[in-house]
Specification:
The structure holds two protein chains of two kinds.
Chain A: E1 5-14, E2 17-27, E3 32-36, H1 43-51, E4 58-63, E5 66-67, E6 78-81, H2 93-103, H3 108-121, H4 137-149, E7 155-159, H5 167-184, E8 187-192, H6 195-201, E9 204-209, E10 212-217, H7 219-224, H8 229-234, E11 239-247, E12 250-253, E13 257-259, E14 269-275, E15 280-283, E16 287-296, E17 300-307, E18 312-318, E19 331-336, E20 342-345
Parallel strand pairs in A: 3-8, 3-9, 6-7, 7-8
Antiparallel strand pairs in A: 1-2, 1-4, 4-5, 9-10, 11-12, 11-14, 12-13, 14-20, 15-19, 16-17, 16-19, 17-18
Helix pairs in contact in A: 2-3, 2-4, 3-4
Chain B: H1 11-38, H2 50-57, H3 59-92, H4 98-110, H5 113-124, H6 129-136, H7 147-172, H8 175-183, H9 188-217, H10 220-225, H11 232-241, H12 248-273, H13 293-320, E1 323-326, E2 329-334, H14 337-345, H15 347-376, H16 381-391, H17 398-408, H18 420-445, H19 448-456, H20 461-489, H21 495-498, H22 506-515, H23 519-544
The chains are: A alpha+beta, B mainly alpha.
Chain lengths: 353, 551
């Protein structure tokens, strides 16, 4: 049965450097959970602690109610897919996939159907006699996937599995992975630095920075209600506008534009507003600036607008709403949709909206 | 703190323990016995510096150090003078028959070192073939005994180190690098001086240092051809071995001195090139300039001349081994007399050589891959300590190693002197760095994820090592083993200290046969070694497919 993974206060140190500061996390049985963050944020370190390739300095990691800190890597019953696939170069595709089953001393009659089924799941059954050197990157990725799931592990770990593929194949493979995971119902922990990939593939995401979890939530929660400015900035694109809050009805943005914001808390003082380009629009009053650059992107146009105080913000305008490109240097007024923005206390980065 | 591999006595921890205990017993213990021994005076108790004082005050002794350093320095320069141009010509021009020349150069490097000296005696010695022939037409050939002879033989034997190091580096320069310089307006000589040379400098230094260390440590050549010109390893041998007036304590002191010098030179080199190693993965190897007609001939000729001279010893011994002899004299006509002679008299050394070498390489391979795994994969303090300890034999001349083993294992319960075991131990210590180095290089290129994949699939680290890691290292292991094998069968300088009548090897017997002027049998024995070496090299090249360097 697929594990629930419970991580409590996990700490990782390298000498004096603390890579992970007390991580708390629960991954539910059957869930597709992603650790997302920039490089060096500790996501791979945490994944390797779960796999058993890194030590755990403090805290515990449990599968269901069993603490696995002291269990050796090869006894943890985990399927793992590596960034560079780590296909055994001396074995055929079939033998690669059969490797874990044979390690479990499974009889030959049992191995063959399982391997064939796994190869079928990732659509490479006709490659079973090939050598790894004869496979493309995408095919190797499929072998790695089949090899990890064929042992029917309680947990599947994936360390940036798509980062070595080209853009088109990456999108294709992420659908393959998602469908496979749904079908098998294996608890999966996935590591990536690609926010778009994380949004597309995950049930829930933990956004990490400097060894600390910034926010855990569904892709929609994280995108629409980023808990911290870092998350707002890392996931998608955000414009940050500084403002002074006197009351929810009286907010002065960038010293020029007065508006009201739906604040959840009683707050007075300096704050910053994070607004997505698609939640900004051109109008006849508001923040004044001029257009610096326009980029045609098919169904919308992305404008860079320089405000009077020099700050550059991005505004998306949907193509069907307008006749032609706004020329460079044309003067514009910009407003945002107050219902869609996030507001943070500038001092504590606490979310106010 | 939690241990990565749970149990303190898991596979790798036990391996580490066994490796460190072996190093302690067979390297550190003998060498510290040697150091202690060097502070003793025969017949007296207590420690004293007298041995060292004698060395640095009596010209008879300190001159040998001076001689050794002179020979090593000059050889380094002459080997550079020959090796560098050859490396440049071979990598940048279409020299005729390039591949065969390359193999010939490697053969001349891997051949028994003292065979060079021996052949030169056969050709140009007092009773040499060419000396006599030239004398008949009135030409008196200058003597080849002494300093000049040692340097000539050393140079022809060791320029291949420079050639192999530098041509390897030259081939690794991405052609775009030189093209960039050309594009920026640099002329050819300017380019060589400002780009090519600085980039290959670490390799030049690496090759030069090997030449220096090898010529400092070599025993066979100066022993055979040096005569009055005594170098330190010869002095060590004579002090230890001579029946009258020999002084084992003084020999120990001499050993410490030579190790001190070779270690210092190695450390200086490490400091000088430490942060100047340019790692390059050549995507486009440099262009080879195609020359034609006379120009091509002119470019090929120097390479051919050098190769001819350096392969001459091998040809000489093979030819002379078929010349008939009467006692110590060569007589007219060809035959198998010398070979019959060794079958009758010297078959024991032949079986000894192959038997000891075989035992050694089996142990070298097993220990070598385990040690290289500990160094490369199990980083941390033990890994780097091991890295240093294992390379220690590089700075210890064979004769010094021989003495330290004799000093350490000459009384019960560790009475090993005169046994085959002590010969095998010395082979292993001396040759294991080759295998450790070649398998470390292989391991470094291997992605650790492959092992982790196996472990995550439920295979224990120990089983993973044998099923995946060792399996993938096989080509590297076999190549390293063949190189170790070649240098085991040719080993002289430690064996000459350790052998007894029963445990003599081919190399030792060649030496003793030459000393008793039995040139025919010596030539036949040398031919056996040369042929074995050449065949082993051929197998090595087949297996390694050019991926493993011989140096």
């Amino acid at each position: 049965m697929s594990h629930t993974v419970i991580i409590k206060g996990a700490v990782k140190r390298y000498g004096n450097f603390t890579a992970l500061h007390g991580i708390d996390l629960t991954v539910n049985s059957g869930e597709f959970f992603t650790l997302l963050g920039p490089s060096g944020c500790g996501k791979t370190t945490l994944l390797r602690m779960i796999a058993g390739f890194n030590t755990i300095e403090e805290g515990t990691i449990s599968f269901d109610d069993v603490v696995i800190n002291a269990i050796e890597a090869h006894k943890r019953d985990i399927g793992m897919v590596f960034q560079n696939y780590a296909i055994f170069p001396h074995l055929t595709v079939y033998d690669n996939v059969a490797y874990g089953l044979r390690a479990r001393k499974m009889r030959k009659e049992e191995v063959t159907p399982k391997v064939e089924k796994a190869l079928e799941l990732v659509h490479i059954k006709d490659l079973s006699n090939r050598r790894p050197s004869e496979l493309s990157g995408g095919q190797q990725q499929r072998v790695a996937l089949a090899r990890a799931v064929v042992i029917e592990p309680g947990l599947l770990l994936m360390d940036e599995p798509l980062s070595n593929l080209d853009a088109k194949l990456r999108v294709q493979m992420r659908t393959v992975i998602k469908k496979l995971q749904r079908r098998l119902g294996i608890t999966t922990i996935y590591v990536t630095h690609d926010q778009e990939e994380a949004l597309a593939i995950s049930d829930r995401i933990a956004v990490m920075k400097d060894g600390v979890i910034q926010q855990i939530g569904t892709p929609k929660e994280i995108y629409t209600h980023p808990a911290k400015p870092f998350v707002a900035n890392f996931i998608g694109t955000s414009n940050f506008l500084s403002c002074i809050v006197n009351s929810a009805e009286e907010v002065k943005v960038e010293d020029t534009y007065l508006c009201s914001l739906p604040l959840a808390k009683n707050f007075k003082g300096k704050a910053s507003i994070s607004a997505r380009p698609e939640h900004m629009y051109f109008t006849t009053s508001g923040l004044h600036g001029k257009i610096v650059l326009s980029t045609f992107l098919g169904d919308f146009i992305n404008y860079e607008v320089q405000l009077d105080d020099g700050k550059i913000i991005q505004v998306n305008e949907y193509s069907q709403n307008m006749e032609e490109l706004r020329p460079a240097d044309s003067e514009v007024f910009v407003k945002f949709n107050p219902q869609k923005v996030s507001v943070y206390d500038q001092a504590t980065e606490e979310v106010l909206s | 703190m939690m241990r990565r591999n749970g149990h303190p006595f898991d596979f790798w921890n036990s391996t580490r323990l066994v490796v460190f205990l072996s190093i302690l017993l067979f390297m550190i213990f003998p060498f510290s016995s040697l150091i202690i021994n060097s502070f003793h005076i025969p017949g007296k108790t207590g420690l004293s510096l007298d041995n060292f004082k004698d060395f640095f005050t009596l010209p008879y002794y300190y001159r040998t150090l001076f001689n050794s350093l002179t020979v090593a320095c000059i050889t380094m320069l002459t080997a550079l003078a020959i090796g560098l141009p050859i490396a440049y010509l071979m990598t940048r021009y279409n020299v005729m028959g390039k591949n065969i020349l390359h193999i010939l150069i490697i053969i001349s490097l891997m051949s028994p070192p003292f065979i060079g000296a021996y052949s030169w005696i056969l050709l140009f010695g007092r009773a040499g073939f060419l000396t006599k022939a030239l004398a008949k037409i009135g030409i008196i050939f200058p003597t080849i005994y002494g300093k000049g002879g040692i340097i000539v033989v050393f140079t022809l034997m060791m320029y291949p180190y420079i050639y192999l190091y530098v041509s390897g580096a030259l081939n690794n320069i991405d052609s775009s690098l030189e093209e960039a310089a050309e594009n920026l307006g640099a002329s050819k000589w300017h380019r060589i001086r400002t780009v090519t040379l600085p980039v290959v400098l670490p390799s030049i230094a690496g090759g030069a240092i090997i030449v220096f260390m090898t010529s400092l440590a070599d025993f066979g050549t100066p022993m055979l051809i040096g005569e009055g010109y005594k170098v330190l390893p010869v002095m060590i041998y004579e002090e230890y071995m001579s029946e009258m007036g020999g002084n084992a304590n003084l020999a120990s002191a001499l050993s410490i001195i030579i190790v001190f010098f070779s270690t210092s030179v190695l450390l200086i080199q490490k400091l000088l090139v430490a942060n100047r190693n340019y790692i390059m993965t050549s995507s486009r190897p440099p262009k080879v300039i195609n020359t034609h007609g006379w120009k091509r001939f002119g470019i090929s000729l120097p390479v051919y001349l050098v190769c001819m001279f350096s392969i001459l010893p091998q040809l000489t011994v093979v030819v002379t081994s078929f010349i008939n002899t009467r006692g110590p004299l060569f007589v007219k006509g060809f035959g198998l007399g010398s070979y019959k002679n060794i079958l009758y008299r010297l078959s024991k050394p032949i079986t000894n050589t192959y038997l000891y070498s075989l035992c050694s390489i089996i142990l070298i391979v097993i220990f070598g891959i385990l040690i290289s795994y500990l160094i490369v994969r199990k980083k941390g303090s033990t890994g780097s300590l091991l890295d240093i300890l294992v390379m220690f034999p590089y700075v210890i001349p064979g004769s010094v190693l021989g003495i330290s083993l004799l000093v350490a294992f000459n009384k019960p319960p560790l009475l090993l002197t005169g046994t085959a075991i002590i010969m095998i131990i010395s082979f292993i210590i001396r040759k294991i760095p080759f295998t450790v180095r070649s398998s470390s290089a292989f391991l470094q290129q291997m992605d650790p994820c492959v092992e982790e994949a196996s472990i995550s699939l439920g295979v224990s680290p120990r089983k993973t090592f044998f099923a995946v890691t060792a399996r993938l290292m096989t080509p590297g292991i076999i190549s390293g083993a063949i190189l170790s094998w070649i240098s085991c069968i040719n080993e002289l300088s430690s064996s000459i200290m350790l052998y007894t009548g029963k445990t003599a090897t081919i190399a030792v017997s060649i030496y003793t046969e030459v000393v008793r002027n039995s040139f025919g049998t010596a030539a036949a024995l040398a031919s056996i070694l040369t042929v074995t070496t050449t065949l082993s090299l051929m197998i090595f090249m087949k297996v390694s497919k050019g991926k493993v360097s011989v140096v």
